[in-house]
Amino acid sequence: MNRSDVLIIGAGPTGLVLALWLSKLGVQVRIIDRTSAPGTTSRALAVQARTLELYRQLDLSEAIVQNGHRVAAANFWVKGEAVARLPLSKIGEGLTPYSFMEIFPQDAHEKLLIERLERFGVRVERNTELERFKETGDGITAQLRLPDGQQQTFEASYLAGCDGARSIVRKTLDADFPGGTYQQIFYVADVQASGPTFNGELHVDLDQADFLAVFPLASEGHARLIGTVRDERADHPETLRFEDVSHHAIEHLNVQVEHVNWFSTYRVHHRVAEFFRSGRAFLLGDAAHVHSPVGGQGMNTGIGDAINLAWKLAAVLNGRAKDKLLDSYETERIAFARRLVSTTDRVFSFVTAEGKVADLLRTRLAPFLIPKMASLEAGREFLFRTVSQITLNYRGMPLSEGVAGHVHGGDRLPWAHDDEGDNFEPLRNPVWQVHVYGDTSDEMIAWCNEHQLPLHVFDWRPAFEEAGLARNGFYLLRPDTYVAIADNSADPKVIERYLRDHGIRAFFG
């Protein structure tokens, strides 16, 4: 078979999630990767709450929470002493079913995604490389290099570039990749070790410009060390060994390394591609945006790209939406990527800045402010909302309309729960649906039945008011659980107009 609906280049988390969601929605995919095997020296660790919420649609969340590690607190160290502790076990309590920090390393993550993808009969084709491609009116024609060295011509309706920071897809599209590269060399070491920082919590050294963080893993005494390398040592990163990196920070955190399982170095860039879509080709994940590892945002943002694009591709390929729906992928995701790169750049610059003033800010001001913030519910909530990506929204963008209660079109639907249940259960199914909190009209019920649009009417309860939801209005939800329409009426004509304006012909499920 030399044709599929979507050809996916790159089998990291972004490409795998895109393949999974498309397969779930009945789209035929082919996914290739130039490497011979999944990576084993990954540096992405955190799975954010918003990712876990969306992963419920493929029954992935429970597996990650069961096999990962829930971090109880973040500790900050200065001059060999722990000076501040930020509790994390319930930092987002009441905001999401996943009100904690979850560590699940990228290598284990990829293995899980590959296993789930194979259940759909799709296997990653290894040692297979994209050499070039061109758009041919009604599709993409790609030239592939197969494992045996032979060339193959392959056709697809669309092509997704999930092939990392050195993306051949991005280069073929001639998309600029403006930004820069941090001067530091990063290293990641997977170690068995002991000491006070191996208590299952996150530990960060604020004392030195040589940044170091200890990320706990599920098994006892097992952690990932992520740090920076400076001065002349950074000139030849390819020759560096663990023994060559600065041990000042390691000693400050009282880490006694017993065994290094593996060690890797890398440079970090902060860049966003000029565009994310060109005709029938798309850029996702690191092919579209790269940034510092501060906050554990990179992998989660790529996964968000994949989920955003998947339902739109499925709608177009299944004949239920016009091609113009795909323009919203770039509009929604590029804005977030630019904000994220700017934010992580500022935080990273603060953490790694050199000089007396920078040292004073890190060692004196930060330890003072962190406990203050941790003691205030508003401070903890702001931090969690930002890092967990639950505040990511598409307000003011083409697919987002209206306001009802405190919820705007483009918002993530707020989580509301009490002893009677929660409003997220219907979201497990990645389909368009309508939520009503209170009562609705006979016309709305009849219209939804006629158009086979799932309608969920919840009896009004205090939990809904506390979450900021409007009584007796309605929310039209996209398959990725963001609010398309927030409206105080019970008029189905509002939905009809929305469908017509956006070229969506019918719902799918």
Automatic annotation (TrEMBL):
Quote the SUPFAM superfamilies the UniProt record gives: FAD/NAD(P)-binding domain
Keywords associated with the record: FAD, Flavoprotein
The chain positions of domain FAD-binding read: 4-342
Keyword set includes Transcription = no
Q: Which cofactors, by name? A: FAD
Keyword check for Flavoprotein: yes
InterPro entries on file: FAD-bd, FAD/NAD-bd_sf, RIFMO-like
Q: From the Swiss-Prot or TrEMBL record, give the protein name.
A: FAD-dependent oxidoreductase
To which species is this protein native?
Pseudomonas fungipugnans
